[in-house]
User: Fold this.
Amino acid sequence: MTDLTPHGSDTTAAGATRQQPGDVPHRNRTMLEQWGGVPGMVYMTLPVMAFVVANSLLGLNGAIVTAFAVALAVMAVRIIRRESVAPAVNGLLGVALAAGISWWTGSAKDYFLLGIWLSLAGAVLFTASVIVRRPLAGLVWNGVTGKGDTWRKDRICRFYYDIATLALAAVFAARFVVQQWLYDSDETGWLGFAKIAMGYPLLGLALLVVAWAARRSAHRLHTLSQPRSTTAPAQPRPHTRRHPQPNSHR
Assistant:
């Protein structure tokens, strides 16, 4: 994000606590850092992989138990390593809901049903936000970073976030189309592969577009906030034609 503070201004409040060299402000942490980095992303894919493998070896009930066990193990590892457990808790809740649906219907492929319909809901929601001129990418990004809603008053800034929001909508739409097709084809194993492959990798690409939109918007707002020069341009000097002097004869 581009800093909107004019260069040279003193932004440190009197008596404010100075940051230590290794400190990372929470509001400046990237989405990847909040998920626990690359290991955190891997942890959250393990229950899905365990469910697919266990379903082929142990059947549905064994797959449900295995997915729960792996999700609990991930949480234990994060607690032992003193990492944030929020991603692990979210993953455990997701496993509980997905496994509950699968157990209720008695079909292993229904483990992925909740994610499929959530993808459709995400595609519709993000697209609708652009139509009503409230692009969710801009609302969420500026809400989390505390930048306010100044960007909404500028058509070009809103256009940047429209592109980012449509990129996210495309990711959710692609997930729904591919996984719904695999669901209808009873391809439980490929459903697990598609859920992992179309999860964080695709989302990461869409977030790059969001970051691009945020930088472009911040740069434009910074430019618009600069005072315009009031110095009048120099007027060209009038061209005077010099008349030739008559020759004097001595």
